[in-house]
Amino acid sequence: xxxxxxxxxxxxxxxxxxxxxxxxxxxxxxxxxxxxxxxxxxxxxxxxxxxxxxxxxxxxxxxxxxxxxxxxxxxxxxxxxxxxxxxxxxxxxxxxxxxxxxxxxxxxxxxxxxxxxxxxxxxxxxxxxxxxxxxxxxxxxxxxxxxxxxxxxxxxxxxxxxxxxxxxxxxxxxxxxxxxxxxxxxxxxxxxxxxxxxxxxxxxxxxxxxxxxxxxxxxxxxxxxxxxxxxxxxxxxxxxxxxxxxxxxxxxxxxxxxxxxxxxxxxxxxxxxxxxxxxxxxxxxxxxxxxxxxxxxxxxxxxxxxxxxxxxxxxxxxxxxxxxxxxxxxxxxxx
Length: 335
Ligand SMILES: [Zn+2]
Hints:
- Its EC number is 4.2.1.1.
- By secondary structure, the protein is an alpha/beta fold.
- It folds into 3 domains: 2-105, no CATH class; 108-138, no CATH class; 141-334, Roll (Carbonic Anhydrase II).
- Helices cover 32% and strands 22% of the residues.
- The strands form 2 sheets. Strands 2, 3, 4, 5, 6, 7, 9, 10, 11, 12, 13 and 14 form a 12-stranded mixed sheet that branches. The chain has a two-stranded parallel sheet with strand order 1-8.
- α1 runs parallel beside α4.
- The longest helix is centred in the first third of the chain and has 50 residues, at 56-105.
- Bound molecules: zinc ion.
């Protein structure tokens, strides 16, 4: 027991110094400070309730031996650690020498392809991960936004021509995405866009007058000129939604595996009965954050059951980009 405690104290001390060695700051760690003080006896002998009682002399002898063993172990591990630290310091020095040359030769940006919703690959860093994603950082017409102060006007109705279609489902590592077969269209402002895919975010990326929603469905459309139009359906807790039930029923078991179910799916069943909407010009909400995207956010939320919302939250508890500055953009809304 004593030896075990001594060992774990030892490895804890070593872990501490190894961590310090990984940190970039001090080139010359103050060596004396890394020699851990020998743990005091009470700390060492604290547990061991099961040990048979020893005479005081025997106890002292045992303690002394344990301390001697501990000291020897620490000394040995410190020697290894110092050699390791010296090697690291030498490597760091070589790296520092080589760095300026490398910087001069390399482009100003990395060309990463990995992004996520948290941490060093999170939304605040997307624009720096890849030069093709610069808009994520410096764009002035980015999405999502908090939709407020819309101009109430007589917006034309969006003409949806959706019909039951073959579909695919993939969990692409950022969301569950449903590829929709050809022949589903929407027409607005004299342009006809074809539905390509829809996917989900949790929570909803858009806000409306500051209000958030449980989830959102983004239906991504493209016209013949390549212009994009995205319809956002805000999801709220309520009745089961049939189209989502079909999608969840065909979720692939593994990421990045596309399944093509033998049934058809009608995206139109997801649309709310009332077709008033907000509209503004924005961007894709994932890298590359391309702008010039027409956004159509339906005013009436669509219901999904608590169970359906729970299924997605198990896959993606958080996959929403924070709201971006509206920067004085025109927002229109149906009367
Ligand atoms: Zn989206």
